[in-house]
Amino acid sequence: MQSIRNSRTRFLTSAATVALTALSLTACGTGTGVADEGASAGSATNATTAAAAPAAATPTSPAAASGSSDGDSSNDVEPAAASSKPAAQAPASKAPAAARKTITCEGSNTKTVAAPLNRPVNHMLLTVTNTGRDTCYLYGYPAVRFGEAQSVPPVIEGSRPDGLITLKPGESGYASVNLSAADGSGSHGRTEKSLTVSFRGPSGNESVGASARPSLPAKGVYVDNSLKVTYWLPSMDDAISW
After folding, report:
1. What's the whole-model pTM score?
2. Domain extent for 229
3. Where are the beta strands (DSSP E) in 68-203?
4. pLDDT tens for each residue of 14-49
């Protein structure tokens, strides 16, 4: 009897062992093992998808976009225009004749004509015409010398113009010369046959450039110590009114 019990016990133990082993295999095939393989497959799929997807654009900060930073200036990006050579400038065109600088009117760029007048009596009109290519200025009044005179006659102060007389090419300025006293009150009267007209500079005192030597009538002109001149004026009428 005792051996029969022992055999039965061993049989039951063996059966229990087989049953436990089967349960373990079933659990590995349908439970936890399958779940682990799915998670691993899912992880592999996610990794592949992430690698294949394009990298997202990284937002650029204002400092990086402008090529500068608040930190070390050695990392600043120089603008392309700063490193390029400056564009060659076109050569400056020559200034037109009208824009050239003005110069003083004098004998070499003007023509002077002296014409004795019947009215007013004992007067002579000086006409100066710009014959140059540039605008010129007539400063002050003419310095006139008849014959071998060492001094020039005074100016009539009341004839001073409002502004400087400016002559463009071809334009004329005027001055009149009171040769002698109309009532015969003058002294040291004489007849002169030559005339020299000198031109003044900006200061109004010095003589500049070449002098003009306009011709006089063959018989000459009579002058006395009442000789005087007007300032250079813009019109003939202004000049002979003195």
Report:
1. 0.59
2. 103-240
3. 103-104, 110-117, 123-130, 136-146, 165-167, 172-178, 190-192, 195-200
4. 444 444 444 443 444 444 433 344 444 444 444 344
Tokens at 242, concatenated? 């003195």
Q: What would the DSSP string read from start to end of 147-174?
A: TT-SS-PPB-GGG--SS-EEE-TT-EEE
Cα end-to-end span (Å), the chain = 177
2, part of any domain: no
Evaluate whether residue 109 is within a structural domain: yes
Tally of domains in the chain: 1
Each residue's pLDDT tens digit, 51-91:
444 444 444 443 433 444 444 444 444 444 444 444 444 44
Q: Is residue 13 part of a domain?
A: no
**Could you tell me which of 108, 171, 175, 164 has the C-alpha nearest to residue 135?**
171
Inter-CA distances, 223 with 137, 147, 156, 228, Å: 29, 11, 16, 10
Q: Are 158 and 191 in contact (CB under 8 A)?
A: no
Distance, CA of 235 to CA of 185 (rounded, Å): 29
CATH of residue 172's domain is 2.60.40
CA distance 149 to 125: 19
Q: Is residue 97 part of a domain?
A: no
- Residues 149 and 157: beta-carbon distance below 8 Å: no
Amino acid sitting at position 218: A
